[in-house]
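Need residues for this backbone.
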């Protein structure tokens, strides 16, 4: 049973890297088989179709993000610090190329062409992230620890769009420095006067 679980995890990890590199249609089971070192039929044993594979990947990605947000909330009570840690996570991922792009942000750019089962999970990720950011923004507004000018939900959406847009720009320009350059003014604006 442990081997099946390990193989399944390797398949998911490979799929995530391939999606980040080339999108939903940029990989096949043959690509994963070559990376993981198994036959395509073995992948079908774990994930009968590409839709099943990517839907599972996005669901787990969201669950992992939610668990990380919950853990972070338990360790860091300050809203500004939460926002900075979240931004810093992506800055490090882009800089060291460990996860140079959010898999859900990339898939969102392909939403019109994605199978509905995958699109539903991508939307759920964005709703979850937005709700968390809105709660942080609202708490920061109430405590006076964040300088926000609009409704917390709107500020959360703007911040999320800035993060993902900065990822896209860093990718387009081929340099991680662009991420910090774009995000810097937003983080500065959120600091209380």
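Answer:
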């Amino acid at each position: 049973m442990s081997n099946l679980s390990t193989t399944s995890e390797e398949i998911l990890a490979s799929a995530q890297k391939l999606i980040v590199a080339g999108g939903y249609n940029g990989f096949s089971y043959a690509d994963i088989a070559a990376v993981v070192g198994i036959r395509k039929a073995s992948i079908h044993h774990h994930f009968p179709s590409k839709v099943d594979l990517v839907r599972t990947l996005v669901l787990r990605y969201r669950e992992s993000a939610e668990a990380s947000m919950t853990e972070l909330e338990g360790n860091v009570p300050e809203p500004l610090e939460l926002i900075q840690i979240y931004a810093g996570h992506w800055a490090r991922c882009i800089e060291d190329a460990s996860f140079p792009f959010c898999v859900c942000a990339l898939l969102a750019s392909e939403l019109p062409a994605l199978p509905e089962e995958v699109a539903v999970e991508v939307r759920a990720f964005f709703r979850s992230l937005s709700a968390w950011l809105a709660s942080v923004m609202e708490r920061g507004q109430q405590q006076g620890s964040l300088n926000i000018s609009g409704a917390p939900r709107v500020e959360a959406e703007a911040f999320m769009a800035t993060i993902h847009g900065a990822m896209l720009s860093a990718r387009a320009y081929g340099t991680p420095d662009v991420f910090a350059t774009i995000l810097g003014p937003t983080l500065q604006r959120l600091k209380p006067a």
